[in-house]
């Protein structure tokens, strides 16, 4: 039976309640993590402060690899926010998954296992690159830099590229996280279908795949931020 999600509507618009709740939970976890780790900051960091500073430095390094040094400070917070959201959203459904077996109603999953979430996130990231490009270069300079350089007749390809950037950025993230959840479900179904005798086989396979999926989730967060900064660099830096 196909998995079902909690559905609700506001007027004529329907929403996936499971994805909405998990997205809100992701934001709550991020806020709580940052809040706890940044309380009582000290000049000589230890423990939780060391952890959050390591994450900040890691993301800063990712941003610095793609943007000029003068721009790192301007977009570091954007990269940090994107990284934390994508990372937590990826991992939250890979650690566990809650499904009511009676009607296959899914109550717990990664928000990024939904293509609508990942494509919306990708669209937001690409729109932000356009916004910052116009803000930095003016509309005329932005248009010339983004679509008429290095030669004007590449304009149609450049326009198509904007759409493909959204699709590839979103679907790459969705495909990896969705596949991880599907395989975790299939491994767990072995125990359900063949009984407790398969427990010694299922547990090590499940634990191994969870560890691998957590690693893939972290890699995908890194890739998402890296590509966003690459696209941003193309918009804010004038080509010569």
Automatic annotation (TrEMBL):
Q: Where are the transmembrane segments?
A: 20-38, 77-100, 112-132, 182-203, 209-232
> Mainly localized where?
membrane
> Which Gene3D superfamilies has this protein been placed in?
ATP synthase, F0 complex, subunit A
Give a single Pfam family match: ATP-synt_A
Under the heading InterPro entries, the entry gives: ATP_syn_F0_a_bact/chloroplast, ATP_synth_F0_asu, ATP_synth_F0_asu_AS, F0_ATP_A_sf
Membrane topology, from the record: Multi-pass membrane protein
What CDD domains does the record point to? ATP-synt_Fo_a_6
Which GO terms of the molecular function aspect are on file? proton-transporting ATP synthase activity, rotational mechanism
Listed under GO cellular component are: plasma membrane; proton-transporting ATP synthase complex
Any GO BP: proton motive force-driven plasma membrane ATP synthesis
Per UniProt, the keywords (alphabetical) are: ATP synthesis, Cell membrane, CF(0), Hydrogen ion transport, Ion transport, Membrane, Transmembrane, Transmembrane helix, Transport
Locations listed in the record: Cell membrane; Membrane
Q: Which domain of life is it from?
A: Bacteria
Q: Which PANTHER family match?
A: ATP SYNTHASE SUBUNIT A, CHLOROPLASTIC
- What this chain does, per the record? Key component of the proton channel; it plays a direct role in the translocation of protons across the membrane.
Question: What does the similarity note say?
Answer: Belongs to the ATPase A chain family.
Q: Protein name, please? A: ATP synthase subunit a
């Amino acid at each position: 039976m196909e998995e079902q999600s909690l559905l609700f509507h506001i007027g004529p618009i329907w929403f996936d309640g499971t994805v909405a709740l998990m997205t809100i939970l992701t934001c709550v976890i991020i806020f709580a993590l940052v809040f706890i780790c940044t309380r009582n900051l000290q000049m000589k960091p230890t423990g939780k402060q060391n952890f959050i500073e390591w994450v900040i430095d890691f993301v800063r390094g990712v941003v610095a690899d793609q943007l000029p040094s003068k721009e790192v400070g301007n977009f570091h917070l954007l990269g940090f926010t994107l990284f934390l959201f994508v990372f937590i959203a990826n991992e939250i459904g890979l650690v566990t998954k809650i499904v009511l077996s009676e009607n296959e109603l899914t109550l717990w999953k990664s928000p990024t296992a939904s293509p609508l979430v990942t494509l919306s996130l990708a669209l937001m990231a690409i729109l932000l690159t356009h916004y910052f490009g116009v803000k930095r270069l003016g509309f005329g300079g932005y248009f010339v830099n983004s679509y008429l350089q290095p030669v004007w007749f590449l304009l149609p390809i450049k326009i198509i590229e904007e759409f493909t950037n959204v699709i590839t950025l979103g679907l790459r993230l969705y495909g990896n996280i969705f596949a991880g959840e599907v395989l975790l479900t299939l491994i767990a179904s072995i125990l359900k279908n063949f009984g407790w005798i398969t427990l010694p086989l299922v547990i090590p396979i499940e634990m191994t795949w969870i560890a691998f999926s957590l690693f893939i989730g972290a890699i995908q967060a890194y890739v998402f931020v890296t590509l966003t900064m690459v696209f941003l660099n193309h918009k804010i830096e004038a080509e010569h």
